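User: Could you walk me through two proteins back to back? I'd like the raw sequence and the structure tokens for each, with a short line separating them so I can tell where one ends and the next begins.

Assistant: Of course. Protein one, sequence then structure:
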Amino acid sequence: MSAMPEVLRVALALAAAGVPVLPLRRGKVPFGNCRTCAGTPPRCGGRPVMKSAGPCQCPAPCHAWAAATTDPHVLTSPLWAPVWCEAVTVAYHPGGAGLTVVDLDDAAAVAWARESLPATRTVQTTRGEHWIYRGAMLSSNAVRPGVDIKSLMQYARWLGPGTGTMTDLPGAVRALVVRKPSAARPVVTVPALAGGGECRHRTPAYLERGIAMAEQRITEAPSAVHATVYRIFLAVLSAHGRCGCLTDAHITRLFTAAQGKGESPRHCTDAWTNARTTLGL
């Protein structure tokens, strides 16, 4: 690479500041997956790539947000060189930098934010603004008209440092992705043991205490909420999932606790389903 493209200069500066970056091609979209990962099912570094996976293991830009990196050796490697020559702009992974971007797509959305959200650093976009908060959460699109949340497992275009003082992620933003379980959660049933199994619960209070403890552990999780929710769902199902005593009311309480920590309804359902699959339920 005889002359360093400007997009790469910007990317290296952001990476040096601890912001994971990736190139975007024309149309403001990531480059396509590598040949190895373009098949079905996709593979990455010799392992399946899941939506909740961490950084991509491929040597070239691959898997959109998961390709974002702060490693200058990766960004300047020969495998990335052709991509930077074609890139038109730089994107970053907000969640990887511990940030959340409230993407306000039009004037009406901006007006709503000014009335409803705490002030923070703002970046002008083509049609609206990005409001950037300190703190990461699950991403979600169309949380209200003209408003998307970009944080974990999402990318946002780099449009400059913006203006104003960045503030901590408020509960008002987290609440935008929380839905009432009755409206958003599909009915989940837990099958009884084949041939009928005797309930191991000594008293009704035994099950109630287990659900209450699970709610408390989710609510008090200081970090790694997604992994914590899955682990607790797995523990609850391991103890109470084979006798048929878990009801929709119990499951709703667990989902409500998880959504209160920022988990989306879809991630709650995925964690519950994965826990059941692990236990063979």
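----
Protein two, same layout:
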Amino acid sequence: MKALVFHGSGKSAWEDVADPGIQDATDAIVRVDAVTICGTDLHILKGDLPEVRPGTVLGHEAVGEVVEVGSDVRTVRPGDRVLVSCITACGRCRYCREGSYGQCRAGGGWILGHLIDGTQAEYVRVPHADLSTYALRGAVDSKDAVLLADIFPTAYEVGVLNGRVRPADTVVVVGAGPIGLAAIATARFYTPERIIAVDLSPARLETAAKRLGADAVASAGDEAEQLVADLTEGLGADVVIEAVGVPASFEACTRMVRPGGHVANVGVHGKPATLHLEDLWIKNVTITTGLVDTYSTPTLLRMMAAGQLPTSSLVTHTFPMDAMEEAYEVFARAADTGALKVVLGGPQHDALTIRTP
């Protein structure tokens, strides 16, 4: 089969690799119909995650059809159309029993495209398939469903729920990329008074305001901090969600939060950030971090089926699967191409499609 293989920092190729097979009784083999590229994949290619070994197939999000299952798989069977979650969960260890699937101690957590071969391939082996795949019912579009493999549960759980967004809050989302935009969309479930989107890209800020419902936007830097101060009478935001993953954005978040507020870090950080405890210790600020657990995926799937998630607003580019290298280039140059989410594969993606963000 063909797959996108990591060959060390800055190197990858769409090439022939061996087909996956059942290794454990809890495995499923899924024929991949649609995948997407995550910002974390770009971090891997930059060398920010040294635990990813050369030769690993990248990717941790997919929609596809089950073609084979191990003898212990009970919830899916060959022929089922499924969402492949970015998180693998055994369902039996201490963390899984608590719903903290991202911390699974039995060969789970974030392993696809990280510690084992991932989804950016024609076929993928999914360990612990009972809790790591979700059956898709009805005519759900693959390009919509694949966004629930990672970015929507990540934004919702690690950003909105960890940040404890409540009615009448002022919420600031720093970073209007796919995760940040999904955080804006899911924060609206809790009727905050206002949502402020912060980014360096005017196009992304326009998307945040016109398509996802941000109430105000600002360019990153002094402009954003002044806007937050002006709108809150100098108090600061109730919740600030960091969705970039660089030191400057995290430190800005801690300056924009009010005393007693919450900073929810979602971004994947490749470098140390300074924690200014000399300023924060007296302010009763709560800072949370987290890897998504995907416990919210069934809820989000129901909301998507009911038309309550603006998934299609985030897909700007679609490609056939064999255009993987081109798709990576487009996604990596988002400032020039306007890419938010790129989706590859599926019968509806026989030719390149581009929608202006």
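The chain has 13 helices and 16 strands.

Let me know if you want the two compared in more detail.
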